[in-house]
Write a structure and sequence with these properties.
Number of helices: 3
Low-confidence stretches: none
Structural class: mainly beta
Helix content: 10-25%
CATH superfamily of the largest domain: Hotdog Thioesterase
Oligomer: single chain
Shape: globular
């Protein structure tokens, strides 16, 4: 089942060059996905005081066309394929007024037991509520997101209270703000980005942000103890 909503981005979602920010893109996509889950009465979307919740594991987003402030966009989203034991995929496509794609995205969600700290199995009933489509519609950069271990520079960032979501962790879109401090690819030359969430970050942590360049640009963010928490890959158009 394809779920559709119309939405217009705000002027505050754009930078001084008129490009919508990577963080704003993630927030728009996340909101439409949440609306879809509400429509099928999925009570397990990340909310407070639940034992089992969906946790976002990875984003892949392709920037296909231009987006303007106030532009009426059509957001289509659907759950795709078959679930593994504990994770599933959601695909999204955002269209302009003429029906042309401006964004295409694929996300992976895992079902997580908040009390035990372990993944849990997705039931056929829960998955079936979404009436999944048989396969992904579009093609995306693929391959496992692994720690590169090679960097040209690094910096530090202190997690603020304003960075937190209602689960007490840094919101998934905020990592793009951390990465923005070191990303070298001009915003208007970015063709896609991928972000993988490895472990949650809490308020007050001092994170190390490391940067490297190759065929892709990469940013890796680490906890104070050296544990990897987030990987971001940036590809040019």
């Amino acid at each position: 089942m394809i779920f559709t909503r119309k939405y217009s981005p705000r002027i505050g979602d754009f930078n001084s060059e008129g490009n919508i920010s990577l963080r704003a893109i993630l927030e728009l996509l996340e909101q439409i996905g949440f609306c879809h889950s509400e429509a099928v009465k999925d009570k397990l979307m990340a909310v407070q005081d639940v034992e089992i919740a969906w946790v976002l594991a990875e984003w892949t987003v392709k920037l296909v066309g231009n987006i303007r402030p106030g532009q009426e966009l059509t957001f289509n989203t659907w759950v795709t394929g078959k679930p593994s034991a504990s994770s599933t995929m959601r695909e999204m496509e955002v269209l302009d007024e003429n029906g042309n794609p401006v964004l295409q995205a694929l996300s992976r969600f895992a079902l997580f037991n908040t009390e035990t700290g372990k993944l849990t199995r997705i039931t056929p009933e829960l998955f079936g509520n979404y009436q999944p489509e048989p396969a992904a519609k579009n093609e995306y950069p693929s391959g496992r997101m692994k720690e590169k271990g090679e960097y040209d520079r690094e910096g530090q960032v202190t997690v603020r209270k304003a960075d937190m979501d209602f689960n007490g962790h840094v919101h998934n879109s905020v990592y793009m703000d951390y990465a923005r401090e070191v990303i070298e690819t001009p915003r208007n030359e970015i063709g896609y980005f991928r972000i993988g969430y490895k472990s949650p970050v809490k308020e007050g942590e001092v994170l190390t942000v490391r940067h490297g360049m190759g065929e892709e640009e990469w940013v890796e963010i680490f906890h104070q103890d050296g544990t990897l928490c987030t990987i971001i890959h940036i590809g040019k158009k």
